[in-house]
Amino acid sequence: MSEIKITELLAELTLEEKATLCTGKDFWHLHGVERLNLPSIMVTDGPHGLRKQAGKGDHVGLNAAVKATCFPTASGLAASWNLPLIEQMGMALGKECRAENVSALLGPGTNIKRNPLGGRNFEYFSEDPFLAGELSSAWIKGVQSQEVGTSLKHFAVNNHEHCRMTVDAVVDQRTLREIYLPAFEKAVKNTQPWSIMCSYNKVNGTYASEHKQLLDDILVNEWGFEGIVVTDWGANNDRVEGIKNGQHLEMPSSGQLNTQKIIAAVNNGTLSMEALDRSVGRVLELIIKSRDALQSDPVQVDLQDHHQLASTIAQETCVLLKNDGLLPVTTGKKVAVIGALANNTRYQGAGSSKINPFTLEQPLDEIKKQFGAENVSYTLGYHLNDAHDANEISKAVTLAEQADVVLLFAGLTPKYESEGFDRQHLNLPQVQLDLIHALGEQLAKTVVILQNGAPVLLPFANQTAAILEAYLGGQAGASAVAKVLSGKVNPSGKLAETFPAHLDDVPSQPYFPGTSKQVQYREAIWVGYRYFDTSNTPVLFPFGHGLSYTTFDYSNLQMKGGAQTISLGENDTLTLAVTITNTGKRAGAEVVQCYVGQTSPSQPRPAKELKAFSKVFLEAGESKEIELALDYRAFAYWHTENPAWVAESGEYLIQIGASVADIRQTATLTLDTGIPRQATNEALSTYFEPAKRDFHDVAFSALLGYDIPTATPLIPYTLNSTLGDIAETTLGKPYFETMIDTFTNMMGGDKNDSAAEADRLMAAAMVNDMPLRNLPIFNAAHYSEQEILNLVSCLNNQSEA
């Protein structure tokens, strides 16, 4: 966008118009300026489909949204490891946005899966920042190719739902740089998303919506971000401080509340016109880019074509976790399908990403198509409302005894995982476990098909013949599963997250999700496979794992150029080559994964870190040489004292494999980077031994570089006290109950009992965590800011009395 054009527009705008442009017009629209031909543009939720709200549009109910294509959620997408396919999905999403005059889709979700209990993990890609960054880039590239903006979210360190609106995430700078920021960095540098959505939480004491280090120093000055920073809905804390520190747009509308604060701050000199113009200028750029698309010819969308794309994607999201030879199921077999989820499929997550699909497949129907209706029998097995039913279990056992093959559908219903609240455990619903236990000897001919957005414990894994992780496969996930089960499709998905053997094995578990006011990231860099692999902790299924109906051989790993000692500067790249051969009798795809580790590090470092990958499709007997590129950052860690990426000269191990635990080819490489081995901080000695998990106060303080901060006290009450904080007080209880009613109505729309229960749980969690400052935003008809200030004053006087 021409700087002259923006400068001219800024000169035409009044102070009132500038202040108004910095906040939403309503729940989904930005303000425009009609006299300057600046339209009011619409943004709306994704990320795995278009969720355009009809009518008033300030709710997250399913039935009120326009019909759209529901693709697999991010946890499944990540398992595909297929960047071109995800880019195609992004293009389809962009076209559907264009057809509905939506200018920006709010996604992708890029936050790291710090702990498998995270309630929104289904909406995020991976525990690994390199993989998450590559997948995010592909998604953004696809959407924005259609002249539709994206909103990379949630920036940053938003890794759980409990008290997410006010909690302070305490994390050291090295961990921030190596784990929680790189996926955002890669997406920004590769694709320039039109916007980035800042998270609700604080990061090291400062709200993300006004965090100078994150928004200004890193995002703009270091990474060169050119778009706008928009708040998550209700994430604004102090509007003027936000503008000063790199937040450009507040969503949703705050009416005149924050507009008047901006005007007053300019008039009294606490906010410069230069700072306001920086924010307004970026909002203008977004509106102008969107205007060009809105004024172009209408876009026609073939939803049936998008359904076929959704099916293709869902096929590659299926991860074959175990197979004792039962799969694929041959034709002519008597197939027993068991499980309520087979006929009432769980195909997406709960919360703001809920899509209203224009069509929806059911697994039972698709299995009948693959194997013949005459060969397929079905029984419920369990109830989705978790009611115990001995009769249903008995019917399931009888049906299984009469079958050649049992296809058992299990998974998590919406009340177990949703935006707004975190999971309480990793177990499947007890009614499902009771059913599986009752099947006993029949498990030897049973395939368990999982429908879930995140890892679950599988105590029956050693008894059942096969396990297929289908994730939340979208509207076409059922046919994808049926084709994989029949062998019409060869599974090629690989886990983008670790399935732990026990919840207590997760290194962040002692600190997750923290208290209502603070969460300490004491485990530091030891997240996901970085911990499990380095500490040799057994897992249920490792990162990168996924089986096929064929086999692959890895051979001839070599460095292009052949040298074993290589000079490497910050702008240099190494190229590796490895030959992959399909040694089976079926065509298939393999995800070739490249891990790098320093053999004798001066700092705590994982034994392996994913630094390159490639998905290769091979016919039976076919071989291909795959090239993988490694840059300077592939060997570097973040040096905190002298802030920079540092790759020490020395020996590194290059490991190529089918998973982090299945390494097929290894090479040792000596690098000359000109940087000698750095000094070791003895205070961090415990972080060299992650298996002990002795991340005590002294070590964590040394990691932070300062004393561990004290959590914000509950009293005195402030505008950032939550409704949950005051719910049991005489003055606060009416406010809490009123907002429960408001948010329950906002969640309305679903008839499914399980989904409705999840909506109620989400509403309760969101209200419980809502800061008092947001009452005038989400219920302006009832509350003014002055009333809430008076409430805070009365609460404090009451507590003092």
From TrEMBL:
It holds the Pfam family Glyco_hydro_3_C. Residues 590-660 form the Fibronectin type III-like domain. Gene3D superfamilies: Glycoside hydrolase family 3 C-terminal domain (3.40.50.1700), Glycoside hydrolase, family 3, N-terminal domain (3.20.20.300), Immunoglobulins (2.60.40.10). SMART domains: Fn3_like (SM01217). One of its GO terms (molecular function) is beta-glucosidase activity. It comes from the Bacteria. One of its GO terms (biological process) is carbohydrate metabolic process. Keywords: Glycosidase, Hydrolase. The keyword Hydrolase applies. The keyword Hydrolase applies. Belongs to the glycosyl hydrolase 3 family. This is Beta-D-glucoside glucohydrolase.
